Amino acid sequence: MKQPVRFTVPILFLASVLASPGGEFWEKKEYRQWSQKECNKLLEDSPWSKQFTLTNVGIMDSQDKMSSSAQQPFIKYQVQFRSALPVRQATVRQMQIAQKYDSLTPEQRQEFDKRAEAFLSADLSDAVVVNVSYTTNNQTNALELARYWQSQTTDLLKNFVYLIGSKGNKVAVGRYAAPQGGQQEFQFIFPRQVDGKPILDPQEKSLKLEFTYPIVGNMGDGRAFLEFKTGKMIFQGNIAY
């Protein structure tokens, strides 16, 4: 896979919500019916996405709330399995909502649909793409983070970035896609198979992401461990990742 998986075309689609009782919204509704709130949920805190916040007093995950002053420096990392179809669908839907798809001209809709379909149908049979973004409320910290992540390479990270199964098997990052321009996001790209075998055994109960990050502003310990429960990562009958 030569290019990081991205979708940068602006767009929107307004649809009625038809929900059946029980289950998550991604099980009940086609993605073009998802609301902005639902897209945010899937992209920020779902079976395929997690976030954690670094402060001077510790590390908080997505279930914690900052109780200190809003002026307290923080760094927040958002992690997504971008290769998982529901994440890509939520990304497309979010862009539809942002740009009022129904108000576009027929030509603009056709162009959007073409690019959206290419993004959704991308061949990821040989790659697991983990997208990581970060935000901070301190300009000095932002500059340090940008310098660090733009200077990283696959060779520098291959011994510090892994996907780990519940049985302890580690798969090193196969490619690192550094931030482009002023973007505050990057991608870890892992092989989907090693020695002809899928990196995730169907019996695995979880998939962990381990990676190092820079200690900026005396925040964090430089090491991130995020666990994703595979039993909850089911989409259209299969584990999506």
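(the above was protein one; protein two follows)
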Amino acid sequence: MLKKCDNKCVGMLVWRNGKLLLIERKRGTLGFAPPAGHVEEGDPFEETAKRELEEEVGLNAKTIELVIEGRKENPCRRAGGSWHYWKIYKVEATGEVTRSEDETKSADFYSVDQLRLLAERADEYLRGEIAQDAWEQSPGLEPVWREWLKEMAII
């Protein structure tokens, strides 16, 4: 049985040398995205952000600052998850990136130009120019992250 969606998510923007940390998801909504996750009932957003960052990429949050928040329509693999209320944090983190092999295919830092190319691939997918199987083999940005990064004027 699928877990019920709580409709609350956090995302973490970790920059190093002008590049943004992205993971490629192994399950759920496929694509590239900053580390992110669901906020479980009763958990504070900031604590969830710190926990998810450590779980997904092995980093420890040194500082955490809310950058933007709001509701986005985006599908979830959990029951009832057609939208989420997001809080996106800029995080200064310590440690070396060690990705979760259970949740991610890869984790690396991407330049703004690389982010734009991944966003273009997402645009093509959303217009129906890329078939689902081709997307699964070589995805772009997760659509919801394409929206967030554009809204924050990163891409």
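Reviewer note on protein two: The two ends are 38 Å apart (CA to CA).
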